[in-house]
C-alpha cells in the first residue's frame, strides 16, 4: 500500500529534474536513438517511408507509440515500487547504502565519460517479441520487452534513478521518480511519432554527436553520484528553499 506522504517538496524536486533528464539522455543513447524510426514504423505496421510522407501513417504510429510508452512505463513504475520498498527495508543502513550507491553511480559515469569501459554495459539484450507489429497490444508488449531487454544499455542511467528511489525509502516518492524517468524517455518517442519529418534533421545531428551526448550523460551520472556520496542533495534542497521560499508550500 502506498503511504499518504507528501509527494512533492523541495527535497524531491532536484531528484525529479535529474530523473527527467536521465530519461531524455537514455532516449539519446547509442542503443536507443538509432532504432527509433524503424521501431515506430514496425509498431504502427507501416514503412519508414510512410512514416515520413503520410499524416495517416503518423496518426496510426502515434497510437502505437502511446501503447509502447505505457508498456515501458509499467515496468519502470514497478521497479520504482520495488526499489523504494528495498530502501525502506534497508532504512537502518541508509547511512551506508546511499554513499555506496553513489560510488557505483560515479563508476557508471566514468564509463560513459570514457575514463574506462565496462564491457557488459556496451552490450544489448534484446527480447524477441514475435510478429506483434501493427497492433496496440503488440506495441504494449514491445514496450515491456524494451524496458527489460535494453537494461544492459540503459543500466547505468536507470540504475542512478533506482538508487535515488531506494534512498527515498518511500514507495510513493520512489514511484514518482521512476514516473519522471519514464516521462523523460517516453515523451520523445511520442514527439518523434507525431513530428517525424520535422525531427529528421535534429535526430541526424544527434547521431553525429553521439560521443558528446554520451560524455554529457557520464558527467551527469558522476555528478549525481558525488552528490549522493557527500549528501549534497539535502544541501541543495535547503538552497532551493532559501532561493524559492514558495516551494515550502508545495505538497
Task: Describe the protein in words.
This protein is mostly helical and 251 residues long. Helix content is 75%, strand content 0%. The protein contains ten helices and no strands. The protein has helices at residues 13-27, 36-44, 48-53, 55-89, 94-113, 136-149, 151-168, 171-208, 210-230, 232-243. Helix 2 (36-44) packs across helix 4 (55-89) and helix 4 crosses helix 8. The two termini are 20 Å apart. Mean pLDDT is 75; it is low at 1-7 and 125-132.
How widely separated are the two ends?
A: 20 Å
Largest sheet: none
Mean pLDDT: 75
Helix content: over 70%
The outline comes out as globular
Class inferred from helices and paired strands: mainly alpha
Supply database-style keywords.
mainly alpha; 0% strand
In brief:
With 251 residues, the chain is mainly alpha-helical. The protein has helices at 13-27, 36-44, 48-53, 55-89, 94-113, 136-149, 151-168, 171-208, 210-230, 232-243.
Topology:
Elements: H1 13-27, H2 36-44, H3 48-53, H4 55-89, H5 94-113, H6 136-149, H7 151-168, H8 171-208, H9 210-230, H10 232-243
